[in-house]
Automatic annotation (TrEMBL):
Biological processes per GO annotation: isopentenyl diphosphate biosynthetic process, mevalonate pathway
Family note: Belongs to the diphosphomevalonate decarboxylase family.
Protein name: diphosphomevalonate decarboxylase
Keywords recorded for this protein, A-Z: ATP-binding, Lipid biosynthesis, Lipid metabolism, Lyase, Nucleotide-binding
Ranges for domain Mvd1 C-terminal: 182-261
Gene3D superfamilies membership: 3.30.230.10, GHMP kinase, C-terminal domain (3.30.70.890)
Principal EC category: lyase
Sample GO molecular function, one term: diphosphomevalonate decarboxylase activity
Entry GO terms, CC: cytosol
Pfam families: MDD_C (PF18376), MVD-like_N (PF22700)
Gene: mvaD
Originating species: Corynebacterium variabile
Amino acid sequence: MTDASNPATATAHANIALIKYWGKADDELIIPVTSSLSLTLDALYTTTTVRFGIDGDADEATLDGEVVTGKAYNRIVDLLDLVRERAGITDRAEVVSVNTVPTAAGLASSASGFAALAGAAAAAAGLELSDRELSRLARRGSGSASRSIFGGLAVWHAGTDDDSSYAEPVADPTGLSGDLAMVVLVLDAGEKSVSSREGMRRTVQTSPDYRSWVEEHAGHLASAMEAVRQGDLERLGAVAEENAAGMQGTMASAVPPVEYV
């Protein structure tokens, strides 16, 4: 049994993809169809505390003071089970999270949430994970969480299996990331009518434009990475806009269409 007197707390920040992740090649392992590039945001974050060794036969979770239930609770338990398996423990856990990110509103709350959960749970269970291992663990909760392990610019390598699908920081020789900023305007903080998971599934399965977007995607990512290396903000912005527009096109042609704006 772990020492319940030693909880662990972690904070992780949301990230927004410049070159998008939209669609899974493996739903269970959350392996994406494409690699992606993101910018981590300083003002939007989740702080989570995990304590193993609580009484009872079920995990407990709260978010902003409210008890987590249903699918959201099951996703938390699934990640805790991965940590328990790796640590060789069976203890139930208490998870307490506080969000500055509107939950499920399209601002990557699952990315910050599961990155924070992965970090806190691993530490509370006594695991010493590398950044790459922590990225892979966070990915199992939410794909974009793999990138929220890192600040600044991060690239998530799609990979083909659990070992090869992870995020890492992007080399930034000109310091371009220090000049990047995003303006976030919340028009509606309510939960999206179509979850990202459902939106991705629907797009991959029904959009006639999805495959062509995927085929263009590698070129977009390569161009964006080169723009970062050269410190070319104009080029980075142009390719990010092109990639996002293509993704929106695949969503619009899905059956039924996936609309967030």
